[in-house]
Design a protein that fits this description.
It contains 5 helices and 8 strands. With about 220 residues, it is an alpha+beta fold. β4 and β5 form a beta hairpin. α3 runs antiparallel to α5. The protein starts with 14 loop residues before the first strand and ends with a helix.
């Protein structure tokens, strides 16, 4: 069979950690996400985050993308409160350019968190869960991440979970910055490869264990 005819259905399963449970995005998350989006929005300058009144439309848009097979959107659910406090996704699945079945690469993106959930360890654990599933269940060769090249906060967070900076692609994708409708942005590109994953996994697990230990000691 021609490798181009081999199919892979992008379906993200529930992924559960100690702090966060990643649930496939659904309209049942709308009310929680509206509350999350209503918090301080100071960190969202370069990120696609709906206003509270736009969350229903946002969920519809992500589910429409999911229907194309190119996105598997998630709600990030805080395990303590049981409330959805943000979103993330797998996107842009790429098959092997050979007769090998399955995925060569996947991107993690469309990520945002309520201000109150930032800096709590949820982002790091969510990334760990997404990376682990991609490398250990889907057997990908690499996981991609990208952000607006101007977004220093996001770049630092991506590097903090072990991704390697690969460079900036100019005019690469749509800008989400206010006032830049219909403009393109420069995208800072990052990745983790399968060869790097065992070391990155150990570092992330150690980081998460330290965070849980600090929380338990309070």
């Amino acid at each position: 069979m021609d490798w181009r005819q081999m199919s892979f259905t992008l379906e993200g399963p529930v992924l559960e950690g100690a702090l966060v449970r990643l649930e496939p995005l659904d309209h049942r998350h709308t009310a929680d996400l509206a509350v999350a989006a209503s918090e301080d929005r100071g960190s969202y300058r370069f990120t696609w985050v709906p206003m509270a009144a736009e969350v229903e439309e946002y969920v519809d848009a992500q589910l429409a993308r999911a229907a194309t097979g190119q996105v598997a959107p998630y709600a990030q659910v805080d395990r303590v409160s049981g409330r959805a406090v943000g979103a993330t996704a797998y996107l842009d699945p790429r098959p092997w350019p050979t007769a090998r079945a399955g995925l060569c690469a996947i991107e993690v993106g469309y990520t945002w968190l309520a201000a109150s959930a930032q800096g709590t360890g949820l982002n790091a654990e969510a990334k760990y869960l997404l990376f682990r599933h991609a490398f250990e269940q889907w057997d990908v060769a690499r996981v991609d991440l990208k952000t607006d090249a101007r977004n220093r906060r996001s770049r630092a967070a991506i590097e903090g979970v072990g991704a390697r900076f690969e460079g900036v692609l100019r005019n690469w994708s749509r800008s989400w910055a206010p006032g830049e409708d219909d403009l393109l942005r420069d995208s800072a590109m990052f990745s983790i490869t399968a060869a790097e994953w065992p070391e990155r996994r150990d570092a992330l697990e150690a980081r998460l264990a330290r965070g849980l230990g600090a929380t338990a000691a309070r």
